[in-house]
Design brief:
CATH class: Mainly Alpha
Largest sheet: none
Strand content: under 5%
Number of domains: 1
Pfam family, one: TetR_N
DNA-binding region: 32-51
Keywords: DNA-binding, Transcription, Transcription regulation
Domain HTH tetR-type: 9-69
GO molecular function, one term: DNA binding
Helix content: over 70%
């Protein structure tokens, strides 16, 4: 039985949303296809109607999750105040504590390097995020915008990774605070 295209697209989107959330929370190897399908309210059977493999889902979910980052950039005011607000949101305790809803780069970059089918899509989206940051926010100069964006994004993602990794809340908050201070 064939389903209407709209219904199929909605199911596909649900699978991507749940996969992106679960992968960010537990990593690629920490989640099975069955768990993802169960989280969507679907059985395991239709998975292969949407994706060729778990690796294909991993690649698509990284693209999907990083698109959320791009959308968030576009929704932020492209001013010095917008940049400061963006930093406050990104380098916050709330973001630190919400791995499943947070930044795909901070949650999965270390794992992406071990997944050949995911590296290409990750690279493409990362380049898009760098370009979006470079063109969206005011930097010291147009010529320096790309480099400034790479340095800022690397600091932000690195700070989030470290803040999530330590078992000392005060130190974690200090990492976030110092990263914010260094980027404004």
């Amino acid at each position: 039985m064939r389903y209407p295209a709209v219904e199929t697209a909605e199911k596909h989107e649900r699978i991507l949303n749940e996969a992106a959330r679960l992968f960010r929370e537990r990593g690629f190897s920490g989640v099975s296809v069955s768990e993802i399908m169960k989280a969507t309210g679907l059985t395991h059977g239709p998975f292969y109607n949407h994706f060729d493999s778990k690796e294909a889902l991993m690649a698509d979910s990284v693209m999907h999750g990083m698109q959320t980052t791009l959308d968030g950039l576009e929704e932020t005011e492209g001013s010095a105040k917008g940049w400061t607000d963006y930093l406050k949101r990104y380098l916050s305790v709330a973001h630190r504590d919400a791995c499943g809803a947070g930044c795909t780069m901070a949650a999965l970059a270390a794992e992406v390097r071990q997944e050949p089918l995911v590296r290409g899509p990750f690279t493409a989206r990362l380049k898009a995020v760098v370009e979006a940051m470079a063109s969206h926010f005011p930097w010291s100069s147009k010529r320096a915008a790309r480099g400034d964006s790479i340095r800022a994004l690397s600091s932000m993602v690195g700070a989030m990774v470290l803040a999530r990794a330590v078992d000392d809340d005060a130190f974690s908050e200090e990492i976030l605070k110092e990263a914010r201070k260094g980027l404004v």
